[in-house]
Specification:
By secondary structure, the chain is of the alpha+beta class. The protein is built from 19 helices and 25 strands.
Length: about 725
Amino acid sequence: MTKTLVIVESPTKARSLSKFLGSKYTVKASMGHVRDLPRSSLGIQTEESFQPKYITIRGKGEIIKDLKSAVKKVDHVLLAPDPDREGEAIAWHLREMLKLKDSPCRVEFNEVTKQAVQKAIKTPREIDFNRVNSQQARRILDRLVGYNLSPLLWRKVKNGLSAGRVQSVAIRLICDRENEIESFVPEEYWTITVNFAQKDGVSFEAKLYKINNEKAVISDKKQVDKIVKDLTGVSYHVKKITTQEKTRYPSPPFTTSTLQQEAYHKLNYTARRTMGIVQQLYEGLDVGEKTPVGLVTYIRTDSTRISESAQAEAVSFLKERFGQEFVSSFQKQAGQKGKIQDAHEAIRPTSIYREPEMVKKYLSRDQYKLYKLIWSRFAASQMSPALIETTSVDMVTGIYLFRTSGSIIKFPGFMRVYIESGQDELKEFDVTLPKLFEGDLYKAKSLAPKQHFTQPPPRYTDATLIKTLEEKGIGRPSTYAPIVETILRRGYVNRLKKQFVPTELGKVVVDLLKNHFHNIIDVEFTAMIEEKLDKIEEGKMDWVEMLRDFYFPFRETVETASEKIEKVMLQEEQTEEKCIKCGRNMVIKFGRHGKFLACPGFPECRYLKPLVASTGVPCPQCDGELVVRQSKKGRRFFGCSRYPECNFVTWYEPSPEKCPRCGGLMVSKESSGGQRLSCINAECGYNSAAENSAPNRKAGQKKKLQKRNTSNNAVKKKATT
């Protein structure tokens, strides 16, 4: 009997394939890559053909030995790693290490199902060296950048740091956003809302939309007071009622990027967590069928395309479940930004008939939630669009135009199955207006001016950073999650309240790269490199030529920058402060948590001292002053300069202004209305926003207090009686 060895990447996938293929096949796992560049040296012939020197990855010796032994016991060997660049490279490395003669030997399938695997096994192909060379070019590029830049970071910033080609751009995006936030100046603006009541007691609201046929822009209280005065006691007439029907189309099935974004928004999963769970769904699980089955198709893709067979199956299922009217009469392919490889289908269930509730009892909580998300998104993508009737009403008095709107779902379509993040319920689309007629007159029940302040751009989250990287052409589906994890692990950014905040270390590294290696940290340049890697995969560019074009100019930049950095180090890092142990002038160093002073006599003298920035604000507990410090997680706080004698700390930035009530320390806090100063003394409770609020709020508080006193007096009187 002819025996065949099939080699995949993971043990989970190996177990699934073993049950599909039967006794004629032996399935083993390589546990990912088996060869890589050496850690101890560059491992690349930069002066000649950029040929890499690969070595066996440490710890893989026993795996290779086991695979070689297995090869001797079979007649044929098939290589079945994942169907992408990395998988192709793994297959090539395995063929080289195991000295395989079989050709063709590469097996590729998009889903781990019995039908797909058995079909792929019967049609092996040659190894695609365009994919292999694209992966090699990426790996060599990353090594050239890291190997040359990291020593400069060690000398200038801190030992052990590393600079990544793509990761550095991600850190720059986060640092640039932080700079925008820090330099942002809030601007005041106001909105005015009128509440109307009908005779039947139904009320509705309208917002000021135009003044003198121009968009209403109210920037201060003075304007508000004039408008409120103009609107006092007036009548409003319904000038125009506009009703129109809008068609809302479903989103396409998930790509790697959109899955990570939607899992973050709907399930609160980080990119890393999402990819870990969906990998399990792809590789195969026991869901009560005869053999394990992969529940979703290949998970690293940038395409929204689906196969004709999957589309036909979806149409059949949806017709049975919801009726013909819910089945899309045409498949609208959404446009995608950036470079799309389109090598694989979108991420979808391997069978739409395998509904989430059917397999729920076999899955973990996380597996179920993510599978349901993927299933619902795919099902919705093949359904009819929703029809929503929107009504807009303009109400006018003098030069002022107020507008209100409502919507009614006339046909839910795909929304029966799936609704975008941020729109969690159908009722959010159902905003019904009362019956209104043009020419009707209304009196205002109440008038509500509200102060607002413009907000700075938000910090990046997992979802928004991945979306930005994709839109700008930085990285590829397989790299988004590793990019996020790498910059977190290296201490360049922290995740605080789900948002990315650059650490002092991250800012220093970005500034150094901006000053000396503009291209490496340039978004457009990095996107251009990604496009060239795609061209190599498509066979339209020579990989060695591409490396030459990059490396020789880069090497000159490194040499020039190295000289400049040495000069800057001598000029900038020395301070006037003396080491208390040996008398040398202390120098500024950078650690994981920011700047500190160190003796230049290391290792003979190991004296260190925190370098803190003074706020100029006295400590409220002693005669010290408050200085800026940084926690172990990189979060900024303010503490007394006399620590540990005085342990006063606050997360909020201290203000030099004294509290007008008690003379205590004031700190700056963010609120929905912008920045406000608050007294740190809880018993005082002074709040600048409350003090500066509209007079009617104070009047309301006074009225509330009078009502409470009246009620208390009534209770006392009743008790006396």
